[in-house]
Input
Amino acid sequence: YGRECADTAQALAAVDELADRGAAVIKISLAGGPRLSDETLAAVVERTHARGLKVIAHTLGDAEAAQAAALGVDALAHTPLEPLAAATIAALKDRAVITTLHAFGAGDGAIANLAALREAGATILYGTDLGNSTTPGIDALEVAAMTEAGMDGAAILDALTAAPATFWGLPHGRVEVGAPASLLILSGDPEAEPLHLSAPEAVYLSGARIDGGRRGR
Output
């Protein structure tokens, strides 16, 4: 699932086509299988940014994560599994990382990487890689893994709400006048117990209730 491009011209044409069709983000793969050349990847990042879009990278190893930082990507699509070098962590301190811990087994290496990236200053965004993971809604196992990475309830709540809204330039993620009324109604305080997030009493999307039943944890 993805675009195969033979050269830089094809890759840039793909970026323009996707942008014209309303894409919000361009994802590039830096791990496994056929890969674009470094020259083409750099051109893709430049063109994507010129179109006003974010670039995220599929990276699971240290070398790939370091390359993503050097290319200027905005976020890692996954927390890398291979231990990250100190230089790689430092290079990513101003970027974002999407957690996806549970989808890849929530191993000790990934959890340690997430903790180190967060400590360095990277923005942490909740994500599950849904499709590879199979739990719709907020995944209790993902939340638990984020807790193992040293994130408290306030940090996890931010990674689920305000941080992604800010990163993607969306008006959601805040409860304030003028913001979309997209809300989770919970029975407990998620800052005290983050797992409350995975068992909402109700879900509202732009003011409309879409889920009246509480799901089990």
The CA atoms of residues 176 and 182 lie 11 Å apart. Residues 213-217 have pLDDT under 50 and may be disordered. DSSP finds eight helices and eight strands in the chain.
